[in-house]
Amino acid sequence: MKIIAWKRDRLKELVELWNKELAVDFPMREELFIQNSFDDVNISYGSSYIAVDDQDHVIGFVVAKRWQEEIDVKMDPKRGWIQVLLVDSAHRGKGIGTTLLERAEADLKGNGVEEMQLGGDPFHYFSGIPDHYTDAQKWAEKHGYNKRVDTYDLINHLDKKYDLPVDHSVAFSILKKKEEADLISFLERCFPGRWVYETMKYFEMNGNGREFVIVKKKGQIIGFCRINDRHSPFIAQNVYWSPLFEQEVGGIGPLGIDANEQKQGYGLAIVQAAMVYLQQRSIETIIIDWTILVDFYKKLDFNPWKTYGVYLKDLK
């Protein structure tokens, strides 16, 4: 076994290994893998590695990230991420995964990272370790990671038609491109950090606004909800696994309401509005990723689909 550098010329082998091990739950596309594991500027190429056997076949890999964007959106520069660590099942139990993890952690620590997270990275695949991968969770705990919380992906197969909520105090609409600055200003004020970054990247990647539902009160944005489908400018997190379905899949989230306007039903209403707009685009199944608000979304007929454990480790 040999450890080599993270290289795009191994793309096909990397995706083949992923699908050999994970396709039944998480089918990978080359386009998605390039987007998330090669093109994201936060990938730490010096901390990501490929394991090959004596015949130079890929038998494992780790993708590590640290915050490297120049955009100031209040992301933690001391947080590092393992986006994915995968070893061919035929080669497990030989210390390959441990070697990949330890090398990634050591390099990230040398670059100022003080806390590691498994998943949850910018352009992530998973919010944490899927719950049904119990061996992986036990392995993470053995290597010093502790579970902080469970998160969920939810699903609604849209067995009925939804209507726009009626509330004469506010107005729901799809964001117009000319409202980009207003949305970013709202997010910077109400939800600084990751959601600002993701929205900036959306427009940087030629988004025109059709992926955002907004709610206005007296002409001002007081809330937002992201929606995605296969026509979005990049593959968004809540439609990553759409190849599992024959029908058209859409995604909802993230979303948020100005703290000064909460507890008035606007949060649930904007989700319902988002569902209406997606149904108008012939979406038949909607997925919400990375949430803990299971009871909240159940009010609109969403149910748990996948569960993840969020694992972190102190490197200090």
Quick overview of this protein structure:
The chain is of the alpha+beta class and 316 residues long.
Which class best fits the helix and strand makeup? Answer: alpha+beta
Oligomer: single chain
The CATH architecture name of the largest domain reads 3-Layer(aba) Sandwich
Question: What's the CATH superfamily of the largest domain, by name?
Answer: Gcn5-related N-acetyltransferase (GNAT)
Q: Give me the Rg, rounded.
A: 20 Å
What is the residue-mean pLDDT, rounded to a whole number? 97
Can you tell me about this structure?
It is a single chain. The chain is α+β, with helices and mostly antiparallel strands and 316 residues long. It folds into two domains: 158 residues, Aminopeptidase (3-Layer(aba) Sandwich); 140 residues, Aminopeptidase, CATH 3.40.630.30. 27% of the residues lie in helices and 28% in strands. Strands 1, 2, 3, 4, 5, 6, 7, 8, 9, 10, 11, 12 and 13 form a 13-stranded mixed sheet that branches. It is globular, with a radius of gyration of 20 Å. 39% of the residues are buried. The mean pLDDT is 97.
Map the helices and strands.
Blueprint: E1 2-5, H1 11-22, H2 30-37, E2 49-52, E3 58-66, E4 79-87, H3 96-110, E5 115-118, E6 129-130, H4 134-142, E7 146-156, E8 171-174, H5 180-190, H6 194-204, E9 212-217, E10 220-228, E11 249-257, H7 266-280, E12 285-291, H8 294-298, E13 303-314
Parallel strand pairs: 4-5, 11-12
Antiparallel strand pairs: 1-2, 2-3, 3-4, 5-13, 6-13, 7-12, 7-13, 8-9, 9-10, 10-11
Helix pairs in contact: 5-6
